[in-house]
Amino acid sequence: xxxxxLPVLRWGIVGCGLISSWFVADLVLPRATxxxxxxxxxxxxxxxxxxxxxxxxxxxxxHPSIYASYEDVYNExxxxxxxxxxxxxxxxENALGxxxxxxxxxxxxxxxxxxxxxxxxxxxxxxxxxxxxxxLWTRFNPLAAHLQRLLHQERILGPLRRVFIDFSLYMPxxxxxxxxxxxxxxxxxxxxxxxxxxxxxxxxLILDSHPDHIAAGSPPPWMASTMSLTNGVDETTAIILNYxxxxxxxxxxxxxxxPGKKEFCRIEGEKGEIVIGAPIAASSPGWLEVKVxxxxxxxxxxxxxxxKGFYFEADAVAEDLRAGRLENDVCPLxxxxxxxxxxxxxIxxxxxxRKMNSLTYLRDEN
Length: 366
Ligand SMILES: NC(=O)C1=CN([C@@H]2O[C@H](COP(=O)(O)OP(=O)(O)OC[C@H]3O[C@@H](n4cnc5c(N)ncnc54)[C@H](OP(=O)(O)O)[C@@H]3O)[C@@H](O)[C@H]2O)C=CC1
Ligand SMILES: O=C1OC[C@@H](O)[C@H](O)[C@H]1O
Hints:
Its EC number is 1.1.1.179. By secondary structure, the chain is an alpha/beta fold.
């Protein structure tokens, strides 16, 4: 049988660090049912030699052009879309550069370090007429849509009462090099922006998108939160969102100080509960278990052997671009803005507490 002729999407990658290596490795993995041929067309890195090592290791069969300047990727005519895989604080500048070069953009999470910057980015993309999306890959995991069917259409749990969501990683600040982006405020350090964002995303998938919440006009949940600061950066953060219209609370926690449990989410409703688990982290769920009287089942995520699951979002982006859409409806820009607004509020609350207690919060000083 002849191999299928697939539509091609040509990626320019800026930043050859950890996430770019995961993303690229997933895109180039052979997949029998891939709807798009993702081509790694160009790499932008701080040095050509770093770019070459990256290409040899993560996409050896793709032969991308390698540049020691991100600008060259933005201006490369053979690139359709730029993937921004740099630390949070550079997302705005890098994505704006790509937009200026007329490129579509997939920018890593968080889209920017605050909602104000995201508004600037979204306006720039709209003005230029290019696609823009935050790479919140969790939203594209097939389990997310399945969960929403169970909760929102089948209403298998009845009215929801509490949702516990935790993203814990064991990488205490004391174990990290001072240059780590998790630790360095000048790179956007802290658990909230890095991993807390996923807990708010799960709350969004479960509660903000609940049809009864939408029917009530999507009133913003009441919020309480606190952060544990180490040298002014949050190592642990807890947020409670109270959806008064649904009669349900979401308890969202994140920390770098504990490895956490595989079962990272429990949704409690009047008829039972659903537990969601992940082999490694809450960003990439692997299964869910329904525990309702008369219906107990486990659903596993099917994923291409060896892949992490970044291809789900990349395929969705390719489909949008083929259809001429400039925004994705699973990960809409308004949602990126709304979640950034919540994180701004958490930081704002902490800032007020800091002032009351005369603490120093380094993020403010940079
Ligand atoms: N979706 C997911 O699961 C994940 C998402 N992320 C997101 O990806 C982004 C990058 O994280 P990660 O890959 O872990 O970070 P890394 O530090 O591993 O890589 C970031 C890369 O950005 C480039 N860079 C540009 N300017 C700087 C600078 N001043 N300091 C350091 N690096 C710089 C470097 O690439 P070069 O030298 O080649 O230019 C560097 O290798 C973050 O915003 C994070 O939130 C991270 C991990 C997982
Ligand atoms: O999924 C993830 O796990 C590890 C984190 O540091 C990273 O930024 C996040 O996206």
